[in-house]
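Hi R.,

Here are the chain sequences for the assembly we discussed:
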Amino acid sequence: MIRFDYLKPSTLEEALSLLYEHGEGAMLIAGGTDVMVEIKQRKIAPKALISLRGVKELEYIEPHNGGVRIGSMTTHRTLESSSLIKEKFPALADAVQNLGSVQIRNVATIGGNICNAAPSADTAPPLLVLGAEVRIRGPRGERVIPLEEFFVGPGQTVLNRGEILVEFIIPPAPAYTGSAYWKHTRRQAMDLPILGVALSLSLNKGEASNLRKLLAESATMEEILFSLEESGLVCQQARIALGVAAPTPMRAKKAEGVLKGAKLTGRKLDEAGRVASQEAQPRDTLRGAAWYRREMIQVLSKRLAIKCLERIFLGEKR
Amino acid sequence: MKRTISFVLNGEKVEVEVEPHWSLLYLLRERFDLTGAKEGCGMGECGACTVIVDGKTVNSCIFPAMEVDGGEVLTIEGLTEMAEGGLHPIQRAFIEHGAIQCGFCTPGMVLSAKALLDENPHPTEEDIRKGIEGNICRCTGYLQIIRAIKAAAEGGKDGRAD
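And here is the predicted structure of the full complex:
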């Protein structure tokens, strides 16, 4: 076993000063489901771990002006059982309930998932389509940046030495918005995604009531697509984000441009999926080939768009 | 560099010296001789090392021992000790439904089942499958395990399995 010291601050201030004092040899540990594994695999060898588990002030889900603020030490399990997240930010709910196992979700935190900065981080694509910002505290004060600007490369973020990600700020979703995340895996538990796709779509009020008719009369995806052809709902806003499709989780902004202001027909959704797959830079890996990932970006984007429409409809009913 | 931590282990207050880099699994097996929790993969994938910390299941092989300071840990040994008549109803249901072959996954499987039933006393089959998603049975006896958990749930407090 690699030896390291283990420090347990109980406030954020204390954590910041320990991190500053211990300098380069120190590393933060949240749930530890990545850090402890990487130590065992001898990928990292910190001299000291500074645990944030006792920093209770970083553990909360707080409604904020129609949006929500989430403390970075909130576990996936806590997020999974939040009715606020399920109702208002379903893409994030999709992600947190399918990560790892119960044992992992009981300890793994949303801040840890993001700071580990794996291209496959399940919470990243949903947070990106939800327009999340992150609040970062450091020795020289704090800064708030869009999550999009947080990732630099695989395992690399904009965090400087001594800085701690403390909070996610999710703005209120526009009315008549639906969001969804799909983790494409070979098995249904304890697996990393071959590909992760998140989408959010917003309609205006009139369109949303058309949707009611559309979905009430239709059942299968084919039927929905068919009636979309005729009604052609206009998309007010679209966001698409991809995981394991590039060195970092990414927004597919060109594809979003295809949908924004456009009539949502099957052909339009195909086009958006195609553009998204061209924007992506997937690699051939053990988990999947690049060509396969590109194909699936198209398939899943379209499928998720329908899911978003269904969710707008369900939200309307509630 | 040793540290002293204290916590409630299977209902009993304990104080112990640990090295800061120890995992909870190492502490339980090597210092307390509680060998029910097993090291399978050692990477938090297989669930053979599952124990309950403050009411929630964790993979003890990647759970820092230092984190249980001031907390409460329940292992399979504790579950048995606290049960009336020697075995917990979930354990009895496992036996009655043949939900054990080699037994390596069983302690973790039973504790995951306990955490599930504590939270959701009347789970659907889907809930059960999701509840044990982090426990791999190398003998692949999942159907019997699912049946046993269902029976334990239906048996209620007195644990009659059928």
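The radius of gyration of chain B is 15 Å. The first strand of chain B starts at residue 3 and ends at 9.

Let me know if anything looks off.

Best,
T.
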